[in-house]
Amino acid sequence: MKAVVFHEYGGADKLRYEDVPNPSPQPGEVLVRVKAVALNHLDIWERMGGSPLPHISGSDISGEIAKLGDCVTGLKNGEKVVVFPLTSCGHCEACLLGRPTQCEHRQIIGNQTNGGYAEYVTVPAENIFPLPEKLSFEEAAALPLAGSTAWHMLVSKGHVDATSTVLIHGAGSGVSVYAVQLGKIFGAKVIVTTSTEEKAKKARDLGADHVINYLNENVVDAVKRLTNEHGVDIVIDHVGAATFNESLQALRMGGKLVSAGVTTGKKIEFDISFLYRNELIIEGSYIYTMGEFYQVLKMASEGRLKPVISQVFPLSKAAEAQRTMEEARQFGKLILKV
Q1: In this structure, are residues 40 and 59 in contact, taking their beta carbons and an 8 Å threshold?
Q2: How many whole angstroms separate alpha carbon 132 and alpha carbon 154?
Q3: Can you give the pTM of this predicted structure?
Q4: Domains of the chain, each with CATH number or no CATH
Q5: Please, is 317 exposed, middle or buried when counting C-beta atoms within 10 Å of its C-beta (0-12, 13-18, 19+)?
Q6: Using CA atoms, how far apart are residues 117 and 128, in angstroms rounded to an integer?
Q7: Cα separation values, 204 from 184, 209, 210, 215, 281, Å
Q8: How far apart are CA 36 and CA 142, in angstroms?
Q9: HSE on the CB side for 10, CA within 13 Å?
Q10: CA–CA separation, 198 vs 204, rounded Å?
């Protein structure tokens, strides 16, 4: 089969579109004929040194069942499916206590294992969800990681409701486009940051109440102005070092910063006294649950949550797609069509 593989770490030029052996499903697994796979920043971190070599990235996968492994029931060949990308062991203390996101043996498909930048991929049968009729393969692939992360950050961690005011950094990212929509679904006031008028317009079209261009305006000053000097209840921050301190400063007393990424760096300094004087909460958000993905998929199938696709590339153009992500030229998800 054809796949996009890197055999050494480095830039997008390390990606090779080449022939590799077809995978075969083990007992309890399913072979999926990949139709679409979405890009994530995780793919870039893997390529820079975060995965075993050689490696095939791709966590957000949709396609058709090509073959069932032994002991798999309830599924059939040819069925259109979307893959939930997280696996957990099911028997460690965290799993038994209902906290699979804290499983000691958790893995992300396409990160610790080979993923969907390929014509075929094997995944555990329990990670298979039927593809909703109203969604295309590309739309379905745009949902799992970004949509589930946005739900985990804003709903499960942030406890957003109709009284909340939310600040979301980087309006064009996959997580942000879902966080904006979820914020409005739950009745919150949503403020986003971005760098271009084009992205600002698209964010408003998604439902954002206010857009701050961080190249032209101080984000903290703008937030204070928009909230009558109070600050926001929740900040959704997947940017990292470049925004961490302004995220804290944008919070009201008792507000919560939910952090889920370090695309601009992972080393920061901050004033601890500011943290405790204002009784702020900093909470990490790394993974998501199958139940959260089910909620996202259900909302999308009902038309309440919209998959946002920025651009679709053929699988052979994976390097070009990753460069587009590295240069932050997208608004929404970048998709590889297989």
Answers
A1: yes
A2: 24
A3: 0.95
A4: 2-142+307-337 (3.90.180.10), 147-284 (3.90.180.10)
A5: middle
A6: 17
A7: 11, 7, 7, 18, 28
A8: 9
A9: 8
A10: 10
Cβ atoms within 10 Å, residue 4: 28
d(CA 300, CA 337): 20
Nearest C-alpha neighbor of 287 from the set 44, 95, 10: 95
Average confidence (pLDDT) per 10 residues, the chain, 338 residues: 98 98 97 98 94 96 98 97 94 89 91 97 98 97 97 97 98 96 98 96 97 96 98 96 94 97 85 95 92 97 96 98 95 97
Determine phi and psi for 209, rounding to 5 degrees: -80, -35
Residue with tokens 């439902």: 207
216-237 burial code (b ≥16 CB/10 A, e <16): eeebbebbbebbeeebbbbbbb
What pLDDT is attached to residue 235? 98
176, two tokens: 């942000």
Confidence (pLDDT) at 265: 83
